[in-house]
Amino acid sequence: MSVLLLAEHDGHKLKQATRQAVTAARSWQAPIHILIVGHDTAALAEEAAAIAGVAQVIRADAEHLAHLLAEDVADLLVRHGRGYAVILAPHTSFSKNVLPRAAALLDVAMVADVIAISAPKSYVRAIYAGNIAATVESGDAVQIVTVRASSFTAATDGGAASITAWDVPTTTSLTRWLGEKRNVSDRPALATARVVVSGGRSLGSAEQFEAVLAPLAQALNAALGATRAAVDAGYAPNDIQVGQTGTVVAPELYIAVGVSGAIQHTAGMKDSKVIVAINQDPDAPIFQVADYGLVANLFEAVPALVAALRTSAQR
Amino acid sequence: MKVLVAVKRVVDFNVKVRIKPDGSDVDIAGVKMGINPFDENAVEEALRLKERGKASEVVAVSLGGSVNQDVLRHALAMGVDRAILVETDAVLQPLGVAKLLKAVVEREQPDLIILGKQAIDSDAGQTGQMLAALLGVGQGVAISAIEVWDEEIVVTREIDGGTETLALRLPAVITADLRLNEPRYVKLPNLMMAKKKPIQTLAAAELGVDAGPRLTQRQVADPPARKAGSKVASVQELVEKLRVEAKVLP
Ligand SMILES: Cc1cc2nc3c(=O)[nH]c(=O)nc-3n(C[C@H](O)[C@H](O)[C@H](O)COP(=O)(O)OP(=O)(O)OC[C@H]3O[C@@H](n4cnc5c(N)ncnc54)[C@H](O)[C@@H]3O)c2cc1C
Ligand SMILES: Nc1ncnc2c1ncn2[C@@H]1O[C@H](COP(=O)(O)O)[C@@H](O)[C@H]1O
User: Fold this and answer.
1) Does B91 touch chain A (CB under 8 A)?
2) Which residues are within 8 A (CB) of A57 and not within 5 positions of it... i.e. 6 or more apart?
3) What is the pTM of this model?
4) Which listed site, A22, A119, A172, A271, has its alpha carbon 20 to 30 Å from A303?
């Protein structure tokens, strides 16, 4: 019995999370098949075939799969997925949309956002906004699992898997794709950045969010993150929300600027290696998870920090 | 258009839950409970559809013990027309909930079904997608905006990297994200009035579905705690510590 890994990609490149999921998939010590769903997937398949530990790459390529509608991808998994012991994917907006649908059609449970695997069927996952770690077991014949990418190291190259293809059912036509808005940024991707700088409601406006935090992000080659309050207020785009209901990150260095430290926020960043908090309130809960806390007005401290980083870089 | 909204009763989002001494589960005895925040967004959106003349009736449904009446009263106080309690003391997991909701949908025949994108206790985020699958209808997950066309509903989803817009043929299932709307404040007189409204009760056993749990929880534990950090007095000290002590700066 093999493990089927649903790859996460942007149409051109595999996401780092796919490589992290490969490491998770190795827990079963069974052949790993990577499934690439999309349109024009030849280059993606080559990239996947080169990952160490991958036994087989499967392409499901069709024009109507260009936008990865959940209805169509779930259909595909149900048609071909029954023979697998495990269907696994990184926990992303794509898999969160698709895998529960496939699980219900296969009449099996799904185990979401797993942080540790004890193969063949036991998992640790965070519940209650990361306040509790639960150990759960699935008795179902197909184990459907999404893994928290940041809990696993990324698999490197070194493989030479063969590439095959699945035939693709026609579209369900239940849903029509109308368009998308991609937030473009030349900063590193939030989920995989080595350094993340996050801002809260206290930044006060979209202009100040950018003006204060962008120089710091630039000095550290960091991704920008935000609290829900900052996103709701329109200071930052929705896809950079960090937390229970946003993205979970675990960078080397996380700098929380004017962030109070609500559990829904810390759920998404407390596995960072080093946490720095800048907040003017000495009693802000964020200081309870911070390795280094600076009690200061962010509008003074952040520019000073940028200046200090520049001078220290020049030395 | 008839709208069905699913509301779950969960531990209040401000409560830091504790673990039972035997480590079998979290201890929610005496803990403040309430409507799952995302479900409040779902109810709010259904009510707005009605206020805009798009929906004719809004029905709220909750699955669980008789204590779940409180979240249904909350929904009634917000303004839903009717409330249904699917009563069961069994352990409920997303697939089982989806199967029970499917049975309710077959009775009620709504055109649109709105759930929350995620329950903040189990953080599963699956039930809406599973229900859509079982019903064989389209799904809109993590929705931050809705527009009703004739036979379709146009939704904006929050996705990694931005947003996506889809047209779903009705009937359809959507799940509400927090940015869909700002739920109305429930006024005390409305809550008092809601106490007098009837709640229809269905025994889960009568719905004729096997909604038993598929996952077994072996134990719960506290996640590894972070060691307490320290305060620095200045930006210079911070940079120094990050370089020399934490070694995260060159
Ligand atoms: C169901 C649910 C899910 C949620 N999911 C998430 C999530 O995924 N992610 C998330 O982040 N939140 C989430 N939240 C919201 C969360 O509970 C908090 O409300 C939010 O994180 C607070 O954001 P904030 O820290 O920016 O704002 P606030 O709590 O308002 O904190 C602002 C902080 O800035 C400080 N400050 C103000 N001015 C300055 C200054 N000049 N210099 C320095 N410091 C200053 C203040 O002392 C304060 O600590 C969720 C809430 C719910 C109910
Ligand atoms: N016991 C329940 N009663 C009513 N609705 C529920 C129940 N459990 C889950 N739901 C709905 O499903 C959504 C997602 O839950 P989950 O998949 O458990 O994260 C919730 O926001 C509710 O709308």
Assistant:
1) no
2) A33, A34, A36, A45, A48, A49, A161, A162, A163, A164
3) 0.96
4) A271
